[in-house]
Amino acid sequence: MLDFVGELKRTHMCGALRASDAGSNVVLMGWVNRRRDLGNLIFIDLRDRSGVTQVVITAEAGAELHKKAETLRSEFVVAVVGHVKLRDPGTVNKNIPTGEIEVVADQLRILNDCKPLPFSPADSDIANEEVRLKYRYLDLRRAEMQYNIQLRHKVAIAIREYLNSQGFYEIETPFMTRSTPEGARDYLVPSRVHPGEFYALPQSPQIFKQILMISGFDKYFQIVRCFRDEDLRADRQPEFTQIDLEISFARPDMVFAVVEGFLTAAWKTIGVDLQTPFPRMSYDDALRKYGIDKPDMRLPAMTEVRDVFAPENLASLSIDANLPVVAVVIPNVGELSRKERDDLRTLYPAKLAQQGIKVFDDSKRLEKSFPDAMAKVGERSGAGEKDYVVLVAAGVSAEGSHSEQPAKATKPSAVVTGREREVYEGAGQVRLALAQKFAERHGCFNKRDFRFLWVTDFPMFEWDEEEGRWNAAHHPFTSPHEDDMDKLESDPGAVRALAYDIVLNGTELGSGSIRIHRQDIQSIIFKALGMSKEEQQERFGFFLEALQYGTPPHGGIALGLDRIVMILAGADSLREVIPFPKTAKAIDMMMDAPTPVSDKQLKELSIAVVEKKDL
Ligand code: ASP
Q1: Atom number in ligand 1 closest to CA 515
Q2: How far is the CA of 156 from the centre of ligand 1 (A)?
Q3: Which residues, at least 6 apart from 612, have a Cβ–Cβ distance to it below 8 Å?
Q4: Helix 252-268 to helix 561-569 angle, to the nearest 10 degrees?
Q5: Ligand 1 binding site (Cβ under 6 Å of any ligand atom)
Q6: How far apart are the C-alpha atoms of 429 and 292, rounded to whole Å?
Q7: Rounded CA gap, 363 and 460, in Å?
Q8: In a designed cystine with 503, which of 133, 160, 294, 521 is the match (CB 3.0 to 4.6 A)?
Q9: What is the mean pLDDT of residues 244-251?
Q10: What number does the ligand 1 atom closest to the CA of 557 have?
Q11: Ligand 1, atom 7: nearest CA belongs to which residue?
């Protein structure tokens, strides 16, 4: 028999009771987290979002109350009227904040019961994620998820408050719009009133925020949902949340200071004080030192050591002397046997061999053959006794030096291009593969060691091998570097963009740029991207026109909120910090979406579904 709440009003939250509350009368309401029945005594751990408190029902409280308590099961919803009592010293539980007290029940009302559960929200490890997602409402009751969602709230509020304090306006932009320029696949929404026409869900509010600058709002932000229909990876969701902002008359420094400010506020929510300003590094330096544009700086940088080897040394190792020789150091790995080294080779990307990039992993042998050179490698790279040093270099191919026929630059930068780039990137991949493998030995992957970095001066364009043309490396509204304007047509690969990424421990948290605010330059960029006049008009005509009505210089950035909260929560998946996420197959397991819709709905939308093979 269930009870009604009646006149009862909750007086306290379960997790808030402390020793100082002893003697108080309380009314608690919550869920039965666990129940222990010792015959005379029944204990219930009563849970609400603030935590758990122990409720005791004694036989003395009366047969009726005791009997009722016997019927309680996990996740029943109850109201308890009682008083707070200090626990006997022997039964104090130091592991929970309410462990010094318990609530002795005088009255119990069962407000709702609960079916046998697929899993208990009282458990911390539930192996089957699909079951968790299907019963997300139960999963979200778990202490870990309550913590993560609360953290997400605190982070969002901290960011909002900071941006508000800096004079930003929070302005909403539409979800039903047209294709935006990020270049991923759109989610489309059919229009009923305009048969055959579609809205696109925004991949970001990019165009709107630029328009808001044209409209004179000066500083805009939004914590906003974005939609991209991309193949999902473990760390991607089809809809995700960005902290999106734009500033008029901005220089990169101004954007950096704002981001550093709100990240500092966000990190405070977990009690960490960030040091600002964050270090900055050009894209080229990132490639040379880390072999990647999102360096994990918790590990030592790579070192270029070609010049310590005499040309005949390089020749005897069949190394292409025109290309870099990169030393990769992984700390504290210790002695490795031949077999262990051989096994490591399976970790390196197969592409390296195809590119003719060699990994020299037997440093003992190199030391024997080239003692002086290897001593210098040690000195320059700062490698200690127990550190593992490998050299990565381009081999001389059968036809001779590769460097005489530079590979087509797939993502050229201002300086590091072609084969040179392949060597650095190869070394960067070897560095990361070894670092993963020996994570326990070097201990550098401490989740609480937060190494932020600004990566600047990205290349403006990247070469699309399949299409045989240049693509915008960021998006086509990004301004080229003022000093590189003259190369836009003659040498697009060498043009730097006023684009920047914020990177943390090897992941990109966000990217942004100073935008093009002049219509003439925007047209040149569209042209460089191979967009015909008609196509420019068709895709961005309204925007090209808007640019001509007194557009102020402006710039901005967007950071992924989900990822930030995931890092702050110390979680391993975005799904741990998104209340209702989708699976890797873009399915909502709880709602069971997507689903077919009725013929009637399709008809209204003038849509006929055909099988893919019939297209
Ligand atoms: N709209 C861009 C993105 O989502 C960010 C920006 O340039 O502000 O990647």
Answers
A1: 7
A2: 19
A3: none
A4: 40
A5: 182, 204, 206, 511-513, 556-558
A6: 8
A7: 39
A8: 294
A9: 98
A10: 8
A11: 512
* Amino acid identity, position 602: L
CA of 209, closest atom in ligand 1:
8
Atom of ligand 1 nearest to the CA of 206: 1
CA of 477 to the centre of ligand 1 (A): 10
Give the residue, out of 182, 220, 226, with the most ligand 1 atoms within 8 A of its beta carbon, to mutate for a pocket test: 182
Pocket-testing residue among 173, 203, 207, 511, ligand 1, by greatest number of atoms within 8 A of Cβ: 511
Q: Which residues touch 281 (CB under 8 Å, ≥6 apart)?
A: 289, 295, 453, 454, 455, 456
More confidently predicted of 249 and 184: 249
Query: Which pLDDT band, with edges at 50, 70 and 90, does 412 fall under?
Result: very low
- The pLDDT assigned to 339 comes to 92
CB atoms within 10 A of CB 535: 13
| Whole-number Cα distances in Å, 384 to 332, 380, 388 | 8, 11, 8
pLDDT value for 398: 56
Atom number in ligand 1 closest to CA 556? 8
So what's the pLDDT on residue 399?
52
Structure tokens that stand for 596 in this block: 């077919």
Question: Which tokens go with 450?
Answer: 């937060």
Over residues 209-214, the mean pLDDT reads 98
Looking up tokens 């995931």, which residue turns up?
Answer: 566
Binned at pLDDT 50, 70 and 90, residue 248 comes out as: very high
Instruction: For residue 421, give the nearest of 412, 431, 429 by alpha carbon.
Output: 412
> Which of 211, 230, 242, 456 for a ligand 1 pocket mutation test, highest count of atoms within 8 Å of Cβ?
242
How is residue 466 annotated by DSSP? T
> What pLDDT shows up at residue 234?
66
Atom of ligand 1 nearest to the CA of 477: 7
Cα Rg, the chain, nearest whole Å: 30
pTM: 0.93
Once rounded to an integer, what is the mean pLDDT over residues 215-228?
98
Confidence at residue 299, expressed as pLDDT on a 0 to 100 scale: 94
226 CA → ligand 1 middle, Å: 10
**Separation of alpha carbons 32 and 531, rounded Å:** 63
Nearest-CA residue for atom 1 of ligand 1: 206
